[in-house]
Amino acid sequence: MSAFLFLCSIIIGFVIYSLINSLRRPKNFPPGPEFLPWMGNTLQFRKEARAVGGQHILFEKWAKRYNTNLLGLKLGQEYVVVALGYPLVREVHLQEVFEGRPDNFFLRLRTMGTRKGITCTDGKLWYEHRNFAMKQMRHVGYGRTQMEQHIEREADALINHLAQTQSEPVWPVTCLAQSVLNVLWCLIAGQRITSDEDTTLVRLLELMNRRSKVFDICGGLLAQFPLLRFIAPDRTGYNLIRQLNTELHNFFMDTIAEHKQRLQLKQKDQQEDSDLIFAYLNEMKSEDAASTFNETQLVMTILDFFIAGSQTTSNTINLALMVLAMRADVQTKLHAEVAANLRCASADAFPHLSRRESFHYMDAFIMEVQRFFHITPITGPRRALWQTTLGGYDIPKNATILISLRSVHLDEKHWQEPHEFRPERFIDAEGKCFKDEYFMPFGMGRRRCLGDALARACIFSFLVKIVQHFHLVLPDDENPSMVLQPGITLTPKPYKVKFMNRN
């Protein structure tokens, strides 16, 4: 009996200790709501976020409630710190201590159960493979003439596709996403993904779109309570992301196998390193057994680029088209600028990013779309690599850091009437476009977005060509919403627009 009582005492003591520890707030931790036993702020966070229209909005409301620009939360067992406002956001972006990535179930699920690739890794592996990937992407044309040639081909195909709609109302985001990913895939694999007969890309994009809505900025319930995948695999999105992982893995492996076969048979119509996959395969052959260059790492690197290029760029263009259809005044100014610039250029000139300095209003318009809609309102997540301080508070080692770009892009102390869409805010007294230091849609520092060069080039070139060829008109019964749908990124609600030929 005494042994039984002793065992009960041990269990009760452990439960009490666990309860007290789950309620404990670390010393000098940033202010925020009180923790609930074992759950932290998870239930309150999700409930209030739904009520206000998104987690990014709730962060700002809590920052005002607790009079702080550095929020301290606990989601499940994970300490989470949210940085708001330009000074703190800039510091998190640029400090080495915040270059880590969390190691949790959701991020491992994103990379097919591994901790590989570039986006979700840190330390030596991240540094080595990011540098290698970016070097090779530049070698095959990333941010250079070759990439612009791919963009030109896809832009022409997009214009032809839109012309065939014969001014019927269409939802443009699907064809936009295909065009952007085809540019990226030419750099990664040396070829386009899709043709009119192939539905692979459409299916993958549909899965990616569903993924972005099922999960949220903090990863959803799977991030805090991974055991829920056994209880509610559909509701938590577990089955969806498993399906997406399987299809992406099969697609990537088929492409890698084709590249391997070409290397083995020496059937080379180009240099072996003419795309990213060839470069990785060659690096794998030249490295020793302890090398981190392996097939799994290659698959996850392709996945990182694929996810980075699949939605944010096409959604930015999609939002720009929505604004053009709603704002005839803005569309008129843009068309006048485009027409004037293209008259001055040679007949076959394409509006590549290198000519962007001649399109001041277009440049300002694109930046205002990115600032106003902030489709990635919270970036990260980062991980504190060691115990440190931020904004006068102590940040525990391995705490997750979230970065509120929305709080910078809509800062009322810096931007005049930030909730008004006004491209002129990026035009100086001489009529030239300038970049404001508070404008940072791709982040800053060594963790800056991998796809920024591709995104900037695609957005600019596609929009110039669309404005050149079409007048955008909303159908009589269409009234697009400027309020975006929350998810991993913010997305516009479906709308339709008519592409009226200008010729």
UniProtKB/TrEMBL annotation:
One of its GO terms (molecular function) is steroid hydroxylase activity. Its cofactor is heme. Heme binds at C449. Keywords: Heme, Iron, Metal-binding, Monooxygenase, Oxidoreductase. Signal peptide: none annotated. GO terms for biological process: organic acid metabolic process; xenobiotic metabolic process. GO terms for cellular component: cytoplasm. PANTHER family: CYTOCHROME P450 15A1, CYTOCHROME P450 508A4-RELATED. Belongs to the cytochrome P450 family. This is Probable cytochrome P450 305a1.
